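Budget justification aside, the reviewers requested a transparent look at the raw inputs and outputs of the sequence design task funded under Objective 1. We therefore reproduce one unedited record. The lines immediately below are the structure tokens for a 57-residue chain.
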């Protein structure tokens, strides 16, 4: 009888982590569906600046 390998499930931890970020302005928005991805609209004066996105829920 051949030995069968059991599939090993890898569980990804869903724990929360804390980020400390320094910046100039913050906006809280909901990501909207856009085709096969998501989209967030930001103010036009943010164009050309670097932003960081953090999923909070």
């Amino acid at each position: 009888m051949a030995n069968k390998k059991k599939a090993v499930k890898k569980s990804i931890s869903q724990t929360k982590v804390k980020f400390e970020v320094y910046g100039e302005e913050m906006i809280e928005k909901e990501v909207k569906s856009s085709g096969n991805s998501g989209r967030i609209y930001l103010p036009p004066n943010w164009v050309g600046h670097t932003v960081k996105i953090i999923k909070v829920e």
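Residues 20-46 form one domain. The chain has a mean pLDDT of 85. Computational costs for records of this kind are itemized in the attached budget.
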